[in-house]
Amino acid sequence: MNASVNAATESPGAFPLTPRSMPRVLLSLIRNPLDALPPQIFEEPFVFTQMAGKSRLYLADPELIYQALVRNSDALGKGEDVQRLLGPALGDGILTSDGAHWKWQRQSVAAAFRHEKLLELQPAMIAAAEHRRDLWLTHRGKPLDLCQEMMRTTFDIIVETMMSGGDGIDVDRVERNITNYLKPTGWKFALGLVGAPNWMPHPGKEKARAAVIFLRATLATVIAERRRSGLERHDLVSMLLEAADPETGRMMSDEEIIDNLMTFITAGHETTALGLAWTLHLLARHQDCQARLFHEIATVTEGGPLLAEHVGKLTYARQVFSESMRLYPPAPVISRTAIREFTLGAYRIPADTILYVPIYAVHRHAALWEDPLVFDPERFDPEASRSRHRFAFMPFGAGPRVCIGNGFAMMEAVAILATLLQKFRVTGASETSPKPVMKVTLRPMHPLPINLIER
Ligand code: HEM
């Protein structure tokens, strides 16, 4: 019989969460949940702890992550944490639901993310990047906030490719409201940890509530307009309008369609934008890598404009983006709750255990990476990648719940990087990177400024 993970002393480097350490952990959670990760998880394969009456298991060993997220995926649900954080905005959509309801939704939209379909979207990705590049050409000398710039670019892409332009969505207001929704997530983590009820007031709660009302109403208008016009557009909105549950034949309600559009808009642009902002920041600090990227872009495009067929050939650009996501994974922690007991390595994991996969810590783990804090895109050279465990690098998660948009994101990121760097060299980043803060996604604590030099 396997040992049960039921005492902190059984885990290597157990995290001593005691009544005395609790206030410090809660304060860290409110400010920045990354600071509340047990420090041992950057060196140990796993850390087990018990807090607020719940068993919590942090996994950093790639093999244990594989065993949990892939082999035992049917023993895991998204759990209360995810519902508390994202449920008010994303309802019971593809990211937050479980079981048959999740499966139906995933199958309904899968076709939109097949490789052949994504290839058709490349021109729209390049066009949005060119639009940003042209705006930058008129911005000369003015300071730019990289995160904001990248959010606008990826937002244009998600709305254009998934919603055929979005019928006049107010992009600025949508962006502001997404930020207002995400701002108080530290409070939600902390209140969840002590088992506080959902109605408990906290700073930022009213603004977040107003944001959800605005965002969902905006999408309701998009759906109503699409139904009214009867236009067939072959995009995600049409797919959701036509989706029927394979078992019952039931169509999605408007609320369910809104859940999913909210999910795709938020999950589908924030993450890539933040990945790109950190990438440009790192390139500004590593001019040698930037020079190599210029060379690759010039060789592949033969000095002409970037075309759809070039994107797949920009292998070093992919390496650079991957290495940036290693250091700054846009989704830094994922979590699950065990819905039944299961076996993990030598341990029995009881039902109700909360599992955390701190991608941020896995990507900086002392046992998995040499000089983990050093930026080195060579790590993603095909040869070097082959010699690593597949789940040592997992910015898009793993198993059946792996990011459905991963191919989309890689294509989009490479297209944006290549288009911008054909015209500009980025410089002027601070010597050290600003501290990353987790607000569901990984944002820099302070804006990432850069200078643009026209090439
Ligand atoms: C660099 C960009 C991105 C990163 C790092 C990222 C990361 C992730 C991760 C880690 C998950 C798994 C969450 C979990 O297991 O709990 C996920 C799920 C998801 N992502 Fe992404 N994502 C990115 C871009 C995108 C894009 C572009 C889209 C859509 C266009 C998208 C849509 C989704 C959806 C719908 C899910 C839920 C899938 C499911 O549960 O079946 N993501 N993403």
From TrEMBL:
Quote the SUPFAM superfamilies the UniProt record gives.
Cytochrome P450
Q: Where does heme bind?
A: C403
Q: Gene3D superfamilies, per this entry?
A: Cytochrome P450
Q: What are the required cofactors?
A: heme
* Domain of life of the source: Bacteria
The chain's coiled-coil residues are none
| The UniProt record lists the keyword Magnesium | no
Q: What UniProt keywords are attached to this protein's entry?
A: Heme, Iron, Metal-binding, Monooxygenase, Oxidoreductase
Q: Which GO terms describe its molecular function?
A: heme binding; iron ion binding; monooxygenase activity; oxidoreductase activity, acting on paired donors, with incorporation or reduction of molecular oxygen
Annotated InterPro entries: Cyt_P450, Cyt_P450_CS, Cyt_P450_E_grp-I, Cyt_P450_sf, Cytochrome_P450_Monoox
Claim: Transport is one of the keywords in the record? no
**Sequence similarity:** Belongs to the cytochrome P450 family.
This protein is called: Cytochrome P450
